[in-house]
Amino acid sequence: MCGIFGYTGNNKNAALKTLYGLKDLEYRGYDSWGIAVKETGELFVKKAVGKISEVPERLFSSVLGNTAIGHSRWATHGGVTKKNAHPHFNYDKTITVVHNGIIENADILRRRLSQKKRDLFISETDTEVIPHLVDYYMKRGKSLEDAFILTCREIKGRFAFVLMHRDSDFLLAARHGSPLIVGKGDGEYFIASDIPAFLQYTKKVNYLDDGEYVKISREKADFYSFDSRKKIKKKDIIINLDKEAASKGEWDHFMLKEIVEQKDSLARAINQDDAAIEKIAREIKKARGVFLSGCGTAGKMCMAAEYFFSVVAERHTNFAPASEFPIYHHFLKPESLLIAVSQSGETADVLEAMKVAKRKKSKVLSLVNVSGSSVARASDYSLLINAGPEKAVASTKAATSQLALLLLIAFAVAGKLKEGKELLIGLVGKINDHLNPKYLEYIKKVATIIFHEHDVYIIGKSANYPIALEAAIKIQEVSYIHAEGFAGGELKHGPIALIKKNTPCVALIANDETKDDMLSNVAELKARGAYIVGIASENNTLFNKWIFVPDVGVASPIANLIPIQILAYYLAVLRGNNPDMPRNLAKSVTVK
Ligand code: F6R
Hints:
34% of the residues lie in helices and 23% in strands. It has 592 residues and is an alpha/beta fold. The radius of gyration is 25 Å and the shape is globular. The site of fructose -6-phosphate has 16 residues, from α8 and α14.
């Protein structure tokens, strides 16, 4: 949520580097943007409402300066206006700040700071308190760094921010709850919310932890605790990622690129060290009370895993969306286990759920896609799903990788890891065979039939029920069509009243003991006039359109999810939406 970027170095094109960096961070927020550059003795600032990807280079090609900061916004406090776009300033416009997160005591600080000067604040943002508070302390004789530290201690909430002063050659940045990573180049330093923003310049990084700040000059980056002021030694980490993987390449959208990449991402997800999987399986077997938690799509994958653990390993687990998880704290004990699942590893609700579990001394394991993320670092043990960078807001390849890994763990709990691996390797082979341009084209044709509809319903049973819920999320978020997922057997208890002639209904069918029940549910829909899209390994006369999926046994939720993602993608495109940047959403939800 919000992308922040900072640069200081020998290169005079700090502004352009910041622009490029922000373009790579656009998935984090895209309602407005801003860049501030330190030119000789002056701060050059440009900000606007709109997408950073649409900002032409020429706006910054003649702006020269060695230090710059920038921001791509997802609005929290205050509407989408130029005034609310970052960077924000103190009154004299000497201090400038970009920020990601929410400052919870902003209102109190605002009131206090504007006591003597009523028109001190010009925006509605919480961020603006930061430069004013730093300024407040500087006006009372503190050095910039001391004022910055006092500010870090005083603001409450989750934040990551970068500060640049007109008269200083260094950047200061602090983290408490929102991600910040320093990139070490040759005679230049970067700081950003995510690594792809500077990946073209360096792979050498340092992560900031909560409660830390960094002072960055062209020559070095020094890390400190802002509570104790103690210097912190950091080991350089070399990132195993290439720019290519994080770029759109020739694809129209990241979402389609990432859907098609599932052939490879699934293979990587299951290509795990057996010892790591067995270790998690042991923890599950040992635990008294296993909880699975995540948000949105990751949550739905946890819910599907609840079925996997039941069907494959006869093991009871409990799923709760991370935002609801704290309510169950009564059930947590030191012997309990929480498995937290998150693509970004930065989702605030997931971090909060983990905190609750830790408070009860329960063990916390996690599956994440972003190495070094907050969730990974706060876990007792963390496994990477290895999906590669996921840039589209709608989660696709990360979701199937999470599912594959959770299924593999269920097999390991059942003492059948080898069998699980073979099943999943078979699945990858089958997906490789059919996930081709012809398949995409066919699903696009199905989308063409239903893209003008107002409602779409999706049904599934057993582990395909959470996939129906996930299908609804996918369709809602990118196409803005009203979509709802149901357990097939639940329709007759109410929702079937919604079905009219030609209402599109998608049935997710597995070739197992649930198939007959599902076909009965499809028949009930069809009898009320529904237009049936069957996702199944075999055609059926009940289907108006059949989308083929391979028969992969208990792994069917993975196979069934892929055509739904493709359908959602084309529904969005046919309705003229940009599926990579759905309205009101951002990739990584770092606020509660
Ligand atoms: C929907 C989607 C979201 C995320 C959710 C959790 O397509 O992507 O529902 O799944 O915000 O995000 P992570 O997995 O980063 O914790």
